[in-house]
Amino acid sequence: MKGKNSKPHFHVTAGLIWKNGKVLIAKRPKGSHLEGFWEFPGGKQEKGESLRHCLEREITEELGIEIKAGKLFLPVKHEYDYKVISLHTFNCTLLAGEPKALQCQEIRWVDPARLCEFEFPPPDMLVVEAICQSWSSKV
Question: Which of 18, 22, 90, 129 is most buried, with most CB under 10 Å away?
């Protein structure tokens, strides 16, 4: 049960969609919270929905592609002034389609080493740092 001063808590999914060694990022739409920031595509979990199903649904809606959500990469909890989010980031396999910016300003395939050149919201930055650490240990 929520206390009188508790903030709403949302579970949000994000997908690490890889192609030819690059990861897909999307620019948040105009008029949205954190407009213009880059993010890993995904969205809010609906009631009764599994995290993986949420991610697969959101990716189809936002990018017009079919993916398979795989292994959980990194869970992150972040508290804003007015809400708390738990960001669940999954490695994904692209099954069908070519991504299109249907619900975002722009999409880009980015080399992991260049992710730090883009402005991400605080929870996504933790994912970016983990990708960079993971990537540099392979080089």
Answer: 90
Per residue, the 3-state secondary structure of the chain, as one string, reads CCCCCCCCEEEEEEEEEEECCEEEEEECCCCCCCCCCEECCEEECCCCCCHHHHHHHHHHHHHCCEEEEEEEEEEEEEECCCCEEEEEEEEEEEEECCCCCCCCCEEEEECHHHHHHCCCCHHHHHHHHHHHHHHHHHC
The pLDDT tens digits of the residues spanning 32-69 come to: 777 789 999 999 999 999 999 999 999 999 999 999 99
The separation between the first and the last C-alpha atoms of the chain, rounded to the nearest angstrom, is: 47
CA-based max dimension of the chain: 50
Q: Is the pTM of this model over 0.90?
A: no
Tracing tokens 């009631």 back to the chain, one arrives at 47
- Give the gyration radius of the chain's Cα atoms: 15
Higher pLDDT, 1 or 5: 5
Q: Could you tell me the CA-to-CA distances from 23 to 4, 45, 55, 84, 132 in Å, in that order?
A: 41, 22, 16, 26, 12
